[in-house]
Design a protein that fits this description.
CATH superfamily of the largest domain: P-loop containing nucleotide triphosphate hydrolases
Strand content: 15-25%
Number of strands: 23
Bound molecules: adenosine-5'-diphosphate, magnesium ion
Oligomer: single chain
Structural class: alpha/beta
Number of helices: 20
CATH topology of the largest domain: Rossmann fold
CATH class of the largest domain: Alpha Beta
Distance between the termini: 76 Å
Shape: elongated
Amino acid sequence: MANFDLVPDLKIGNIVEVSGTTIRIELSGDVTELTRSHEGRVYPIGQIGSTVKIHFGRRLVFGFVTLLRMRSEELIEQGQPIPPEADQRLMEVELFAEGVWQGVNGTLKFTRGVSTYPLPRQGVYLLTRDEAVDLYKSAEGQLHDEAIDPLVPFATYVGADSARCRANIDKMFGMHCAVLGSTGSGKSGAVAALLHSVLEHKPNGADLCRPRIIIIDPHGEYGQAFGERAIVYRAYDPIGHEQAQGEAVKLPYWLMSADEFRLLVIGKTEFEATSQNNVIYKAITYARLVAAELVDPSPSSYGGAAPSDGGNPDDPRPKAGVQSQQIIEFDRDKPRPFSLDELVNHITYLQGARAKGAVLERIPDGDFTKNFKSILDKLAILRRDPRISFLMANWETAASPSLAQVLTQFISETQAGDDSKKDIRILDISGLPNEVAGPLAGMIARLMFQYKLYQTTDERKKDPMLLVCEEAHRYVPDRGEAEYATAQIAIRKIAREGRKYGLGLMLVSQRPADVESTVISQCGTWLVLRLTNQTDQQHVARFLPDGLSGMTKALPNLAQQEAIFVGEGASLPARVRIRDLTSNQLPRSQSAKFAEGWAGLGLSNAELDVVAGRMVS
Ligand SMILES: Nc1ncnc2c1ncn2[C@@H]1O[C@H](COP(=O)(O)OP(=O)(O)O)[C@@H](O)[C@H]1O
Ligand SMILES: [Mg+2]
């Protein structure tokens, strides 16, 4: 018997209702009959996530089982009496594709979407394993000669003899993707599996992939998974002991636009805060002009000469040899360095000064306190906070890193023929409170976006990048607190516009309902592992492509490492099992081992003393 022949043996039921691409099927046979044997193989019937087919001569329509239940359950739900014959099983199927079997060359011509709709009473058939393999193969398509292969195998199809499931990384990363699932469902394992598969992939058939991937890693778990292939950066080491692996990252404040810097210092605008915002905007512009050597530095005391042009003391005035046009055209938002000392001086000694005769004197104390004190205090607090010294270390001309040096932390030159290259950059933000993790994630996202924005089309082509946001709900939550604003703005921007510039997002979260909704709704590909929380399931259902929302019903029942894979990057919606990784390819496990820990003696008083010392040091 050839594949895709109509085999009466494989029929499992009849259609009773068709509404759009959702069909309902009444299974034949009684409840006890949960499997079907065919050519020596046993097939389970109505497995959620399995594929079924409907024949129209040589044409076939394929669907994905989303629900299986008893007729009686449905009647109870509708509040109707249950007749004795209500022990049939009902199955709901989401139609997703059509195919034509070309017996001559033994191939299936596959098209996504459905144009021929089945009718009630039509039969529904199981897909044999061989047919499933054919279906997946033709859905993934064959590579044309000499083409670059975007298909990366990272999982197997469930119920298809372990046929390999390949993700189209052009579509998956180009149009953003989400990896979702409850804690322990295997999200981090799935991310590592995907990235390892990318590292092992040979797009041109000969040479290994040279990906540019940045992972924001709130648990410090990915360093172990990529060993030699990654560089780990740390923002801050709260404990100063063994976890201090990794280099100190530099993401200076001057990468921020005036508005972002204002958000960091003042926070969300309150009603009387516009004048405060202007204090910051004026000071940043001035400090950037000073660093660009277009104006003279602010004084560092009162008593200097008042401007002779009668204007405000704090106005920028071109230095000798500089055209005033250069000052007018100066863009205060570009990531040009500036000194925080200069910023403070501008606020204190120019904005906080007035002309008295020919000299500048301090404005009355009341005015100074009202307008400037809280800003200067907040700035001083930020500058003293050791947790954010990666951000707030003052820029000083010679010693400070340049923009190019900041960038090469994340994007370094690719050496031909060097397979030991560290393609993956991990930003370990474990131990950081959210008010620090937020701006940090925001800074890196913004830096990457800006970098892409200023590339030519040609440069972009050579340099696509992926930003992996693990535990995205932690720093891009769907809430409005000020500490998240930087990250929300930056990551939202990538979500909306990143695809134009070759900057992809991979969002990973166990609480999809808590992730910023603009960001998550932009994802084109979904890898959803076991998800038990109902709110989260419903949330995911809202974002899945048309008709596939029914698949979320399968989510609570998935095994560890199993997932529903749908969207742009998937050849067809399918239930897949993520490939197995070895322990040194897996992210570091989070779970504490109580039995093991309690089996021994625990810490001595001397050891406890050391911990106490760390807590206050
Ligand atoms: N691809 C995989 N290969 C082997 N083991 C895995 C894989 N994915 C997950 N696991 C196992 O499952 C455990 C939990 O997975 P993890 O990815 O940490 O879950 P999550 O990130 O969703 O909380 C891991 O510690 C690991 O033992
Ligand atoms: Mg995880």
